[in-house]
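Antibiotic biosynthesis monooxygenase
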Amino acid sequence: MTATPNGYVTVIWDAKAKQGREADLKAFITAAITPSRDDPGNIDYEAHEVEGQPGSFVIYERWESRELLDAHLNAPRMARLVPQMLELIEGSIEDGIRLLRPFRPAN
């Protein structure tokens, strides 16, 4: 597991497709994987569909720092993608986001 001086940041994002848009959201998420993995500071970016719940997705991301995550979120392509994503998901993007910080025993 990669650890950085400031500690990495993990993002869990739960997204639910609007009814009838399940395949569209899956395709949208699929297209976002490689560009996100290529962003500076990305450690891991994995997309999952929840078994038995078509149209429910979980994205798991790890970034070297909060600053690099913020750079990813503020990339010009994200400004173009967010409106498209909002057409596909139930609720807001923020509703499904959880930021996690790792901790470990001292020794």
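thats it. The first helix runs from residue 22 to 38. The two ends are 16 Å apart (CA to CA). bye
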